[in-house]
């Protein structure tokens, strides 16, 4: 780091939170860092968010960003510092060798950051990472710093993964091709194989699938050996049984919902004129209460052109106003859907490349959310009390839809046909079912309202999110031992 600008200025707790450089990790990480920094326990709490260099440049796209790549910055509450994975081009590792290279490069970079903080008398007292970061584990061991895992998916997913690596993998793998086979895991309702996170049942032998398994295996081995605290972006009433069960195995702190507030400035890695002009908010303002269908598939999913055409057809069949997000990189084959988006805009709907989703979901005009069921989108829908029509694709989304439909009854699943497509007719059926006046629609809307109130109580000052976060911070004790940093200086070490 080039200078002291943006670095925490006092003694006390100092959390270095390392986030994967994608949208779905950045916002919950930033909200957590903010809450830590504002916590006010017995000693000052500082939080630094570290992201890959490429992400840092997208977060702060000023001409100075390139020169800031070696410098910490601050927004007045938390600090930001970029780290390098050696490639610095935003690409995913190609293979195992590439992964190993990047792990070493990231470790070196993060280690230098930790050493720099220590040398300036602001030692990092706890390293954290979103879900899993092997370099964080390496650096924490090297510097004798405790680690906490920030699990940004439901605790149900933590449980499934935990049990997979603790005795259940053979059972799951041996039925991986039978989507209807039900597996009973401790603390969970019976779960069909088809609702397991995709990489656990991926039998294709793909490089990516293997990489996920390897990384998660190392995560759970690390957890068994080092017993890191685990912060989860959920709240007790959402997943009571699973939380109770997982507390038997891990030191779990439920610190959710971590969605910030609808008026708080959020970091958007996807930029579009709309996001600054907020024309879609003006458009929403002109719509009737709970009349709009909001459609968005997060920051990763790509839809086929055929799927996007079906979605647009379904929306038109309903004849209800809609706000549709189609990211620039959100269509497969780099193509446009048959219905040009221009044409679509002249109809009932508005199409944008990106929006401030939390602000949209919080608007009273929104009546339902057609979603891929990523966890951030799901918990944002819960907090906003908006019913969900789930069109899951992969990862935890396949499990999240189960929670939405079967456990919480705040939405329904849009079924795919034999070609894996959710047809326009099916989408229209789901929208009518959720937005209409049937007894089922009433239950879904009422449940959404009730969960919203519970979620807001958890998020409010003095609620369970704040209380559990404070309990977590209190478990970190400053010890009198010292350790040697990379540069030979001595710094205080911290014990959990
Ligand atoms: O126009 C948009 C579209 C999305 N978002 C935000 O982008 C985030 C998207 O996150 P999420 O809903 O979790 O979806 P993904 O981006 O697909 O997230 C990946 O990471 C998540 C966390 O691990 C997993 O739950 C998902 O399955 C995985 O696909 C949310 O905060 C949205 O509010 C916007 O602000 N504007």
What does this structure look like?
Pfam families: UDPGT. InterPro entries: UDP_glucos_trans, UDP_glycos_trans_CS. This is Glycosyltransferase. Its EC number is 2.4.1.-. The chain has 496 residues and is of the alpha/beta class. It is built from 18 helices and 18 strands. The strands form four sheets. The chain has an eight-stranded mixed β-sheet, sandwiched between helices. A six-stranded parallel β-sheet has the order 13-12-11-14-15-16, with helices on both faces. The longest helix has 24 residues, at 96-119. It binds uridine-5'-diphosphate-glucose (UPG).
Strand order of the largest sheet: 3-4-2-1-5-6-9-10
What binds here, in terms of ligands, is:
uridine-5'-diphosphate-glucose
* Sheet with most strands: 8 strands, mixed
Characterize the overall form: globular
Distance between the termini: 27 Å
How many helices? 18
* Poorly predicted regions: 479-496
Strand content: 15-25%
Quote the average pLDDT.
Answer: 89
The percent of residues in helical segments reads 40-55%
Structural class by SSE content: alpha/beta
EC number: 2.4.1.-
Enzyme class: transferase
Keywords: Glycosyltransferase, Transferase
Organism: Urochloa decumbens
């Amino acid at each position: 780091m080039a200078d002291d600008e943006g670095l925490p200025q006092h003694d006390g707790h100092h959390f270095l939170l390392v986030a994967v450089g994608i949208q779905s990790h950045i916002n919950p990480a930033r909200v957590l860092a903010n809450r830590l920094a504002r916590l006010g326990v017995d000693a000052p709490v500082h939080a630094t968010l570290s992201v890959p260099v490429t992400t840092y440049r997208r977060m702060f796209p000023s001409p100075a960003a390139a020169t800031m790549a070696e410098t910490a910055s601050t927004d007045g509450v938390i600090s930001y510092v970029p780290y390098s994975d050696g490639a610095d081009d935003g690409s995913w590792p190609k293979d195992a060798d590439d992964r190993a290279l990047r792990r070493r490069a990231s470790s070196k970079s993060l280690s230098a950051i930790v050493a720099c903080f220590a040398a300036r008398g602001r030692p990092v007292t706890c390293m954290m990472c979103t879900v899993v970061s092997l370099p964080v584990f390496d650096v924490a061991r090297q510097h004798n710093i405790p680690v906490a895992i920030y699990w940004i998916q439901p605790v149900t997913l933590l449980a499934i993964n935990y049990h997979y690596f603790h005795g259940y993998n053979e059972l799951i793998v041996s039925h991986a091709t039978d989507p209807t086979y039900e597996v009973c895991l401790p603390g969970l309702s019976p779960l069909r194989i088809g609702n397991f996170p995709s990489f656990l049942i991926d039998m294709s032998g793909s490089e990516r699938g293997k990489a996920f398994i390897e990384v998660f295996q190392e995560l759970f081995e690390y957890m068994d050996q080092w017993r890191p605290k685990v912060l989860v972006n959920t709240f007790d009433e959402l997943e009571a049984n699973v939380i109770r069960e997982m507390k038997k195995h891990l030191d779990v702190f439920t610190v959710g919902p971590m969605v910030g507030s609808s008026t708080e400035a959020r970091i958007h890695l996807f930029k579009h004129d709309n996001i600054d002009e907020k024309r879609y908010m003006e458009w929403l303002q002109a719509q009737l209460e709970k009349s709009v269908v909001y459609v968005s598939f997060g920051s990763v999913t790509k839809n086929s052109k055929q799927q996007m055409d079906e979605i647009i057809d379904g929306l038109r069949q309903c004849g209800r106003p809609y706000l549709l997000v189609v990211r620039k990189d959100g269509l497969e084959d780099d193509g446009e859907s048959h219905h040009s988006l221009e044409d679509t805009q002249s109809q009932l709907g508005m199409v944008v490349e990106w929006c401030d989703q939390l602000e949209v979901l919080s608007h009273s005009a929104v009546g339902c959310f057609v979603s891929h069921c990523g966890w951030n989108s799901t918990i944002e829908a819960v907090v906003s009390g908006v019913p969900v029509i789930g069109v899951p694709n992969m990862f935890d989304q396949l499990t999240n839809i189960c929670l939405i439909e079967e456990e919480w009854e705040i939405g329904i699943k849009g079924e795919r046909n034999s070609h894996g497509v959710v047809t326009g007719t099916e989408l229209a059926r789901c929208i009518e079912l959720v937005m209409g006046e049937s007894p089922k629609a009433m239950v879904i809307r009422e449940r959404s309202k009730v969960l919203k109130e519970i979620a807001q109580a958890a998020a409010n000052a003095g609620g369970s999110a704040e209380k559990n976060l404070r309990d977590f911070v209190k478990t970190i004790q400053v010890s009198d031992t010292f350790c040697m940093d990379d540069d030979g200086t001595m710094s205080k070490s911290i014990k959990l």
